[in-house]
Amino acid sequence: MTVEVSDVPEAKRYEARVDGETKVAGVAEYIRTTELVAFVHTEVEAEYEGRGVGSALVRTALDEARAANLRVLATCPFFAGWISRHPEYQDLLYQSRSKVSD
Protein backbone atom coordinates (compact mmCIF):
# COMPACT_ATOMS: atom_id res chain seq x y z
CA MET A 1 0.00 0.00 0.00
CA THR A 2 1.32 3.41 -0.99
CA VAL A 3 0.13 6.55 0.80
CA GLU A 4 0.57 9.86 -1.01
CA VAL A 5 0.25 13.03 1.05
CA SER A 6 -0.11 16.51 -0.39
CA ASP A 7 -0.56 19.96 1.09
CA VAL A 8 -3.75 21.70 -0.04
CA PRO A 9 -3.16 25.25 1.24
CA GLU A 10 -6.47 26.64 -0.04
CA ALA A 11 -8.24 24.09 2.18
CA LYS A 12 -5.70 24.53 5.01
CA ARG A 13 -5.06 20.82 5.24
CA TYR A 14 -2.93 17.91 4.16
CA GLU A 15 -4.72 15.17 2.27
CA ALA A 16 -3.74 11.52 2.03
CA ARG A 17 -4.67 9.19 -0.80
CA VAL A 18 -3.96 5.48 -1.03
CA ASP A 19 -2.62 3.63 -4.08
CA GLY A 20 -3.42 6.44 -6.52
CA GLU A 21 -7.12 6.58 -5.64
CA THR A 22 -8.92 9.90 -5.99
CA LYS A 23 -10.81 9.38 -2.72
CA VAL A 24 -9.29 11.19 0.26
CA ALA A 25 -8.30 8.61 2.87
CA GLY A 26 -7.39 11.10 5.58
CA VAL A 27 -6.78 14.76 6.35
CA ALA A 28 -4.73 16.84 8.76
CA GLU A 29 -6.11 20.35 9.22
CA TYR A 30 -3.84 23.22 10.18
CA ILE A 31 -3.52 26.94 10.85
CA ARG A 32 -0.28 28.45 9.54
CA THR A 33 1.43 31.71 10.44
CA THR A 34 4.83 33.03 9.39
CA GLU A 35 6.46 31.40 12.44
CA LEU A 36 4.46 28.28 13.17
CA VAL A 37 1.92 25.77 12.03
CA ALA A 38 -0.76 24.53 14.42
CA PHE A 39 -2.17 21.10 13.66
CA VAL A 40 -5.73 21.18 14.94
CA HIS A 41 -7.50 18.07 13.63
CA THR A 42 -6.63 14.76 11.99
CA GLU A 43 -9.17 12.34 10.59
CA VAL A 44 -8.71 9.04 8.76
CA GLU A 45 -11.62 7.33 7.01
CA ALA A 46 -12.68 4.15 8.84
CA GLU A 47 -11.63 1.77 6.06
CA TYR A 48 -8.07 3.16 6.17
CA GLU A 49 -7.57 3.17 9.94
CA GLY A 50 -4.60 1.19 11.20
CA ARG A 51 -2.91 1.19 7.78
CA GLY A 52 -0.41 4.00 8.28
CA VAL A 53 -2.42 6.82 6.73
CA GLY A 54 -2.36 8.97 9.88
CA SER A 55 1.36 8.43 10.36
CA ALA A 56 2.03 9.38 6.73
CA LEU A 57 0.03 12.58 7.21
CA VAL A 58 1.95 13.54 10.34
CA ARG A 59 5.40 12.65 9.00
CA THR A 60 4.89 14.57 5.74
CA ALA A 61 3.42 17.61 7.51
CA LEU A 62 6.26 17.70 10.04
CA ASP A 63 8.95 17.21 7.41
CA GLU A 64 7.51 20.12 5.44
CA ALA A 65 7.31 22.27 8.59
CA ARG A 66 10.99 21.53 9.24
CA ALA A 67 11.92 22.39 5.65
CA ALA A 68 10.03 25.70 5.95
CA ASN A 69 11.70 26.50 9.30
CA LEU A 70 8.33 26.55 11.10
CA ARG A 71 7.66 25.61 14.70
CA VAL A 72 4.82 23.18 15.40
CA LEU A 73 1.92 23.55 17.81
CA ALA A 74 0.28 20.15 18.14
CA THR A 75 -3.19 20.84 19.51
CA CYS A 76 -4.53 17.75 17.75
CA PRO A 77 -4.22 14.75 20.10
CA PHE A 78 -3.13 12.47 17.24
CA PHE A 79 -0.24 14.80 16.29
CA ALA A 80 0.75 15.29 19.95
CA GLY A 81 0.77 11.55 20.63
CA TRP A 82 2.70 10.76 17.45
CA ILE A 83 5.36 13.38 18.22
CA SER A 84 5.71 12.07 21.78
CA ARG A 85 6.57 8.63 20.32
CA HIS A 86 9.03 10.05 17.75
CA PRO A 87 11.69 12.07 19.58
CA GLU A 88 13.39 13.02 16.30
CA TYR A 89 10.51 15.47 15.73
CA GLN A 90 10.26 16.96 19.23
CA ASP A 91 12.66 19.79 18.39
CA LEU A 92 9.95 21.24 16.13
CA LEU A 93 7.55 21.87 19.01
CA TYR A 94 6.70 25.48 19.69
CA GLN A 95 7.99 26.87 22.96
CA SER A 96 6.37 30.01 24.32
CA ARG A 97 8.77 32.93 24.74
CA SER A 98 6.59 34.76 27.22
CA LYS A 99 7.49 34.84 30.87
CA VAL A 100 5.03 34.90 33.70
CA SER A 101 5.87 37.50 36.31
CA ASP A 102 5.35 36.84 39.97
TrEMBL record:
<feature type="domain" description="N-acetyltransferase">
    <location>
        <begin position="6"/>
        <end position="94"/>
    </location>
</feature>
<dbReference type="GO" id="GO:0016491">
    <property type="term" value="F:oxidoreductase activity"/>
</dbReference>
<dbReference type="InterPro" id="IPR045057">
    <property type="entry name" value="Gcn5-rel_NAT"/>
</dbReference>
<dbReference type="GO" id="GO:0016746">
    <property type="term" value="F:acyltransferase activity"/>
</dbReference>
<protein>
    <submittedName>
        <fullName>GNAT family N-acetyltransferase</fullName>
        <ecNumber>2.3.1.-</ecNumber>
    </submittedName>
</protein>
<keyword id="KW-0560">Oxidoreductase</keyword>
<keyword id="KW-0012">Acyltransferase</keyword>
<dbReference type="InterPro" id="IPR016181">
    <property type="entry name" value="Acyl_CoA_acyltransferase"/>
</dbReference>
<dbReference type="InterPro" id="IPR031165">
    <property type="entry name" value="GNAT_YJDJ"/>
</dbReference>
<keyword id="KW-0808">Transferase</keyword>
<dbReference type="Pfam" id="PF14542">
    <property type="entry name" value="Acetyltransf_CG"/>
</dbReference>
